[in-house]
Each structure stands twice: as C-alpha cells, then as structure tokens.
C-alpha cells in the first residue's frame, strides 16, 4: 500500500485524464482532416500542421507528467510568482515579440512561437485561488468552505477583481487580443461560487442585456424607456427616501451603460464593429466579405447532416472554403465530416470534462484547490461556449480555440497546464486525508 502511495499516479483522477486524452486524440485527427491534401498524406509529416500538432501533443503529455511529479505545494507557494512573471511577459511581448496576423502577441524563437496571454489564464487562476484562500484562513468564517463573509467585504472583492482585470486590460490594450482578454471575465463565476453577492451577478446580466439593446435601439428611445420603468417602479413600491435613491441610481447607471456602449461601439476598429453587426443582423451583410466566415461555417456544419459525409470526405473542408478551419473553426470540420452525431459527441465530451472538474472541485478539503478547480471549469466552459457559438452564428467571431481540439502549441500547452495542476491538487487531497 505504501508503494502505491508513492507512485506517480497515486490518487490521479483517471476519468479526467482519459477524457483529456480522448479529446486531444480526436482533435489531432480532425486537424489532419482540416488540412488534408493528397500530396501530403503521411499523418506523421512534421512539415504539415498535423505533424507539428503531434509534436505539441507529445510535449503536452511530457508537461502533464512533469506537473504530476512536482509536489502540489509548489503551485501554492509560487502562485504569485507565476502571475507576476507572465504579467510582465504580456507587457513585454508587444515590444519584443513578433507580429502574427496583425497582433503583436507572440515570442518567436526560430519556427517556435509562444503566446504568453494563453498561459496567463492558469497563472491568474493560481493567483486568485491563493489570494482568496489566504484571506479565508485569516477570517476563519463559520461557514464551511465558504467565503461569503469575505466577499461581502468590498476591499477584498476589489482586490480579487484587480487580479482578474490587470491581465484583461494588458492583453486587450497592448496586444489587441479581444478574444483572449475577455476570457478572464469567466472567473467572475468563481467569485460568485465563493460568496460574491448575487446582486453583482444580476447587475452584470442586466448590463449585458442593456449592452445588446443599446446596439439595436436608439439611445434616446432606450433612455426614455428606462425612465418610464424607473417611474413606474417608484409608484408601485413603498415610497421612501431609500427607494427614491435606489431608483435614481438605477436610472443613472443604466443610462451610463447605454451611452457608454454607443461610445465604445463608435470607437471600435472597423472589423470589430462588422463582427457585431453580423451577429445582430444590422444592415445588409455581404456574404463575400464580413459575413463570409460565419456563412461558410454554417454551410459546412449543415452539409454534414446527421451522420456526416465521412472522414476526409468534407468538400467545404477539403477545398478551404472555411477560413481558420484547423484553429478557431475546427468545429466546422467535425460538423461536416461527422455530422450531428460527431458534433454532439464533441460537445458532450467537453461538457463531461467540465462537470467532472466541478465534481472534483466540490470534494476538495483545501479552499485553494476548490477555488482553482472552479477557475478551470469556468475557463473551459467559456472557451467551449464561445467557440461553438461563433461557428453557428450565436456569438461574435472573436477567435478563441476549442479546448484540446484546435491546432496550436500555446493553446494546448496552456489548457494542459491549467487542467493538470488541478489533477495534481485533487490527488493531493488523499495525502491530506492520510
């Protein structure tokens, strides 16, 4: 028994590891299909993307094993170091890195490239878990494994939001990587799980609704409607000074969101405004220009039918009708060649992994491990929802990969590190129990 406890794989959640391995293997096969041509049929050809992806996969497995070898306490001790180091890397890359597809967010070493923003996700998750768990120990709340009292304290809430907001602003402003930047918003769900007031969540949802309405309706019309709603609310609730202040704050805040949305929209870059217009159906969409990507993606997925056209038989895929079909639009390859059955399988596997991570998070004895686990689930869910959503026209095209599926070393490595740190933390709970 003692030999087993000292084994590398002691306590490792095999279901999570097997699901990860299956997703990575399926992703590799679909990358091969996405860039397949008759001149290069050798799936191990490293001059092609699928051959390179095999190298990324092999190195990702090595990284996963390395993470499992290192003591779990290492990730707690060096959480802030990882955060600070990668934050500095994200600041430096626009000045020292190379431009790729219009964005200066890559460090290049010959043919090898690293995108620091991808790795910022696991570092931010570590820092957030470290901060919240440390304050939890100091506060010693009476609620078991809850930080409700902690997060009602605005000071601690603000610090937690700053931890999330710094990488978001740096990646967006300095690197102009909108997709990678907004991923950090997903961590808000972690804060909510740990006791953030539901009022913040309601305010966030309401702001999102106002954001969309502001783009569809005229600002003056929307502000007048908000004023009428506020007036009616005040007439039908108990009239008091407190309620009057609440209604006034509501009206002013909502008006600021409406006017702010239009200001931000007017100052977006042309391609970003076009993506929003395509999503909302504003004006006439040119299917040969701004609407091309989403339209071709829908055609590819729809043409697959129920069972798909068969592996390597996708015409939309084979003839490169879908741009970025091995990265951001890899889901289209699945839809065309594997049909509804294939896309459903991929989505169910991704969701199963997310639910498994949540289950593992709930069984943690350490607040640090639990918080980190929820962060993993939030990041994975955000990526899956947005990536699949943008290929079928439900989300704007912002260019984020499908976890463990899309081509790319940085994304695969970052997701592997993100997940396997938690796998190691979960295995360590058995050591704590002993």
Any overview of this molecule?
With 434 residues, this protein is mainly α. The chain folds into 2 domains: 344 residues, no CATH class; 71 residues, no CATH class. It has 19 helices and 3 strands. It has a 3-stranded antiparallel sheet, covered by helices on one side. Helix 5 packs parallel to helix 8. It starts with a helix and ends with a helix.
In short:
The chain has 434 residues and is mostly helical.
Largest sheet: 3 strands, antiparallel
How many angstroms separate the termini?
12 Å
**Overall body shape:** globular
Q: Helix segment count?
A: 19
Q: Give average pLDDT, whole number.
A: 81
Annotation keywords:
globular, 434 residues, 3% strand, 3-stranded antiparallel beta sheet
List the helices and strands and how they pair.
Layout: H1 2-5, H2 14-34, H3 49-69, H4 73-77, H5 79-96, E1 98-100, E2 103-109, E3 112-114, H6 116-139, H7 148-151, H8 154-175, H9 178-182, H10 188-193, H11 198-216, H12 219-236, H13 241-266, H14 270-280, H15 292-303, H16 315-318, H17 330-362, H18 367-391, H19 409-433
Antiparallel strand pairs: 1-2, 2-3
């Amino acid at each position: 028994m003692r030999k087993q406890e000292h084994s590398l794989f002691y306590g490792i959640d095999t279901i999570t590891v097997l699901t990860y391995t299956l997703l990575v293997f399926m992703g590799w096969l679909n990358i091969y299909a996405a860039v397949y041509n008759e001149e290069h049929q050798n799936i191990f050809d490293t001059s092609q993307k699928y051959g390179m992806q095999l190298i990324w996969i092999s190195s990702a497995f090595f990284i996963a094993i390395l993470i499992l070898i290192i003591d779990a306490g290492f990730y707690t001790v060096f959480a802030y170091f990882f955060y600070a180091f990668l934050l500095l890397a994200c600041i430096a890359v626009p000045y020292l890195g190379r431009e790729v597809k219009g964005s200066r967010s890559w460090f290049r070493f010959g043919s090898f490239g690293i995108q620091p923003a991808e790795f910022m996700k696991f570092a931010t998750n570590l820092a957030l878990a470290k901060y919240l768990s440390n304050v939890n120990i100091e506060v010693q709340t009476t609620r078991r494994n809850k930080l409700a009292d902690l997060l009602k304290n605005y000071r601690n809430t603000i610090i937690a939001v700053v931890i999330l907001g710094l990488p978001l602003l740096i990646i967006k402003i300095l690197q102009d990587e909108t997709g990678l930047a907004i991923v950090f918003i997903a961590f808000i769900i972690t804060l909510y799980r740990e006791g953030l007031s539901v009022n913040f969540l309601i305010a966030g949802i309401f702001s999102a609704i106002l954001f969309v309405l502001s783009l569809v309706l005229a600002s003056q019309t929307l502000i007048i409607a908000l004023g009428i709603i506020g007036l009616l609310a005040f007439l039908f609730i108990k009239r008091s000074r407190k309620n009057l202040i609440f209604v006034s704050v509501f009206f002013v805040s909502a008006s600021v969101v409406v006017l702010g949305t239009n200001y931000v929209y007017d100052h977006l870059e042309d391609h970003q405004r076009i993506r929003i217009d395509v999503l909302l159906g504003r004006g006439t969409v040119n299917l040969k220009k701004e609407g091309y990507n989403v339209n071709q993606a829908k055609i590819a997925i729809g043409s697959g039918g129920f069972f798909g056209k068969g592996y390597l038989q996708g015409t939309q895929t084979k003839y490169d009708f879908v741009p970025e079909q091995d990265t951001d639009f890899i889901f289209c390859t699945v839809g065309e060649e594997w049909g509804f059955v294939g896309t459903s399988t991929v989505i169910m596997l991704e969701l199963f992994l997310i639910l498994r991570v949540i289950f593992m998070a709930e069984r943690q004895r350490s607040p640090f491990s639990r918080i980190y686990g929820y962060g993993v689930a939030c990041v994975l869910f955000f990526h899956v929802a947005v990536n699949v959503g943008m290929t079928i026209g439900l989300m704007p095209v912002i260019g984020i990969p499908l976890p463990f599926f899309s081509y790319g070393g940085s994304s695969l490595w970052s997701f592997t590190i993100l997940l396997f740190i938690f796998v190691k933390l979960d295995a360590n709970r058995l050591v704590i129990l002993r």
